[in-house]
Design brief:
single chain, 97 residues, Arc Repressor Mutant, subunit A
């Protein structure tokens, strides 16, 4: 029963607009400093957002993020990553665990 609860919680976690923005940059290989400069925030803030993104998506690397984003892109036939496409990819990943 506990395992089901954990999966539902992961699926329910939604990335904020800023987290999606940072995830897109990171998924394309952009460095922390460049992301920070582009978004007019501190590199430490970028690192904090990335840590939160990894926790919400239950991943631990840029590679996993890029794979997750590319999966959501291929499902939407678009390079635009939206909250719905990320949540769909998260949901599918959670159900396969």
């Amino acid at each position: 029963m506990r395992l089901i609860t954990i999966r539902k919680k992961r699926t329910a976690d939604i990335l904020s607009g800023r987290e999606i923005e940072i995830a897109k940059y990171l998924g394309h290989g952009t460095g922390y400093r460049e992301i920070a400069e582009s978004l007019f925030i501190a590199p430490k803030t970028v690192r904090n957002h990335i840590q939160t993104i990894y926790e919400k998506l239950d991943i631990s690397s840029r590679i996993e993020l890029a794979l997750l984003l590319s999966d959501s892109d291929s499902k939407t036939n678009s390079m635009n990553v939206t909250p719905n496409s990320v949540n769909t990819a998260i949901s599918k990943r959670s159900h396969s665990l």
